[in-house]
């Protein structure tokens, strides 16, 4: 008696399955959990976490909203430094999304900025369930020294991170490709960096489906 070997999925079928998993994950209810202003307020949780980091006004909140398909889940603002706490969202009891305070510039007293920075650093280095940091870079401007400093710190702390080029719709195709190539060349020098760079536009929904799939892969690992 013979049995038929299981059919092997093609690369295209595997990719379609990943994107469907991403769609289903982000179709779950995304619920605001809390805004932590101190390390003692960070919630106890065993959910895998993904954090959104980047310079002030780079588009973190907009990306959270685009991924979840909810325009007002995360508060957006044209004022740099508006997010001043660690904002936690529970995605269907399967993944925790964390919107971090922007770095590099903020219209706030120096003491407040230092407090946010210290809170963020403590969180990033002391959160065992943190699976990845999405480090957002404005595609119009590329990597800045302040981004490089954060990348070196994450390398030293062995915290996995992935670069996300935001606002891709603001560049023409040739300029965007050049930005991607120069960023990839620099990224290769960093030991904790994920090798793939995500390219997104929250306004045009470009790259959102692919990023959902990547985050679903992390959620599946538990």
TrEMBL record:
Keyword GTP-binding on entry: yes
InterPro entries in UniProt: G_ENGB_dom, GTP-bd, GTP-bd_ribosome_bio_YsxC, P-loop_NTPase
Domain named EngB-type G: residues: 46-221
Stored Pfam families: MMR_HSR1 (PF01926)
Names of required cofactors: Mg(2+)
Keywords of the record: Cell cycle, Cell division, GTP-binding, Magnesium, Metal-binding, Nucleotide-binding, Septation
Top-rank taxon, per record: Bacteria
PANTHER family in UniProt: ENGB-TYPE G DOMAIN-CONTAINING PROTEIN, MSS1/TRME-RELATED GTP-BINDING PROTEIN
Similarity comment: family membership: Belongs to the TRAFAC class TrmE-Era-EngA-EngB-Septin-like GTPase superfamily. EngB GTPase family.
Task performed by this protein: Necessary for normal cell division and for the maintenance of normal septation.
The protein's name: Probable GTP-binding protein EngB
Native species: Aquibaculum arenosum
């Amino acid at each position: 008696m013979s049995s038929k070997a299981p059919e092997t999925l093609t690369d295209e079928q595997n990719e379609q399955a990943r994107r469907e998993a991403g769609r289903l994950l982000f179709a779950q209810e995304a619920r605001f959990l809390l805004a932590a202003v101190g390390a003692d307020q960070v919630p106890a949780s065993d959910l895998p976490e993904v954090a959104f980091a980047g310079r002030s006004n780079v588009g973190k909140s907009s990306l959270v909203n685009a991924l979840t398909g909810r325009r007002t889940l995360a508060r957006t603002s044209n004022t740099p430094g508006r997010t001043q706490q660690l904002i936690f969202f529970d995605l269907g009891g399967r993944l925790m999304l964390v919107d971090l305070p922007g770095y590099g510039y903020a219209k706030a007293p120096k003491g407040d900025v230092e407090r946010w920075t210290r809170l963020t650093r403590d969180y990033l280095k002391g959160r065992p369930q943190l699976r990845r940091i999405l480090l957002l870079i404005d595609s119009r401007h590329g990597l800045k020294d302040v981004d490089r400093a954060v990348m070196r710190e994450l390398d030293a702390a062995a915290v996995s991170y992935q670069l996300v080029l935001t606002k891709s719709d603001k560049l023409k195709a040739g300029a965007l490709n050049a930005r991607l190539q120069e960023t990839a060349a620099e990224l290769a020098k960093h030991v904790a960096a994920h090798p793939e760079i995500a390219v997104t536009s929250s306004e045009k929904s470009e790259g959102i489906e692919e990023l959902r799939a990547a985050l679903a892969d992390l959620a599946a690992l538990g």
